[in-house]
Amino acid sequence: MKERQLTVVAPRGYPWTFNGPRQSRHRVKVRSYAPLNKLRSNLDGLTLFSPLDTGGADLIHAFNRVPLNLKPFVIGFESHLPRVWGLEGSAYEKVLIATLQSRRCRRIVAISEYAARNFRVSVAEAKLDDATKLSLTNKLEVRYPNLDVPDQAPASQPLGDELRATFVGAHFGRKGGCVAVRMAEIALRRGLPIRFTIVSSLQAGGAIWTDPSRPGFFDPYLSLLSLPTVTQIAGLANADVKALLARSHVCLLPTFADTFGFSALEAMAGGTPVLATAQAALPEVIDDGIDGMLLAPTLTPGKDGWIWPYAERNTAQFERLFGDEVERLATEGIGRLEALLADPAAYQDMRTAAYARARRQFSSAEARTYWDALYVDCVDRQTTTRRRGAMAVERADLEHGISRG
After folding, report:
1. Cα dist. 52→8, 32, 55, 59, 380 in Å?
2. Given a cut of 50, is residue 389 above it in pLDDT?
């Protein structure tokens, strides 16, 4: 018997390529959507697809932004849902929550346990009745991002005479580019055989919420790009980035704020271990000392993350905090790379484990099975079926005190 085939509309963009099926038996139409946040920055929580694209569709697969179209939808998200930055408690938030609670929303899919925890906590703390909280959490599942992991383990990359470390990130400050170039400076001073490649368009400061905003603050870090052991590339096609990571010994992601860090997955799929900060979902991706390396995350005093008042990022206090964290991460990071240089056998074990982790946890073949079944389930309106993901979330809801009776 021929398997049932649906038509699904999905958003065009880099994040969705990791968080939807890369192959599917269904007709998945990837289309552009209306970027309403361009009209007003805090309207980042909703979107609209063209009726020409959704007219004959069975389902919308949204990501982060709640679709206004009248079709049923499943929505994935990376950190918080709904996204109502600065509009908590507003009528806007209530509309988004009502849409997520409605029958149009068939499933809510967190891309990590980190994201799922955020959602459960926000629902538990919201001024909602128990029935609404139950309706929302019943729809929650967790599905990790996916990518095409090679069937065969990559060739070994002996350390040889030089360790090659690669940083990839357009947001130079937020992603840890300052840390990477300071590591290069420390390594050069110590005479360590490490070469650094920085793939970045060097966006820093300004409106980037993690960064000091004073013009000129990043100049001392940017000047380190001229070090003889540093190569800077403004941009590369994704295929070229993956090839570069596969040729590298270590991928650097000493990020100040990330929800997942897809470059880490691309590196591990090529057998390249990642040195990253242990924040957001990255501890779910990397087992420290086994398949990669984790540094303690950046924190602001009294907060559980890198959180600072947006309008006060030009203060001397914030600049000192940012600079101190760059120094800490760079010093600790070089220590980890120096330990790798001293133990080539342990490094090879780490490469093997990184590839195995990517194949086990982020396989696109397994993701296809998951999404193909979920689409049918959603169209059939079986929003409370006891799927494996829903059952796992149900236990977590009980731990957070959300009533189901």
Report:
1. 13, 11, 6, 14, 23
2. no
Across the range 191-213, mean pLDDT stands at 97
Angle at the Cα of 38 (from 37 to 43), degrees rounded to 5? 20
List for the chain the helix, strand, coil content (%; round to 5).
Answer: 40, 15, 40
Say if residue 273 is preceded by a cis peptide, omega within 30 of 0.
no
Q: Tell me which residue of 190, 129, 125 sits closest to 401, measured CA to CA.
A: 125
- Output the pLDDT for position 321: 97
Task: State how far the Cα of 81 lies from the Cα of 72, in Å rounded to an integer.
Answer: 17
CA distances for 105 relative to 28, 183, 241, 256, 375, angstroms = 18, 46, 36, 33, 12
Q: What residues are paired with 199 via a beta bridge? A: 168, 233
Q: 236, 220 in Cβ contact below 8 A?
A: no
For position 392, what pLDDT does the model report? 41
- Whether the CB-CB separation of 47 and 40 falls below 8 Å is answered with no
Please say if the pLDDT value at position 394 is more than 50: no
> What mean pLDDT do residues 38-56 have?
82
Hey, what are 125's tokens?
A: 């703390």
Task: Report how far residue 405's alpha carbon sits from residue 397's, in angstroms, rounded to the nearest whole number.
Answer: 12
CA distance 40 to 83: 13
CA–CA separation, 98 vs 90, rounded Å?
A: 12
Question: Considering just the CA atoms, what is the radius of gyration of the chain in Å?
Answer: 22
133-189 pLDDT, tens per residue? 999 999 999 999 999 999 988 888 888 889 999 999 999 999 999 999 999 999 999
Q: What is the pTM of this model?
A: 0.90
Question: Do the Cβ atoms of 184 and 227 come closer than 8 Å?
Answer: yes
**Owner of token pair 């947001």:** 171
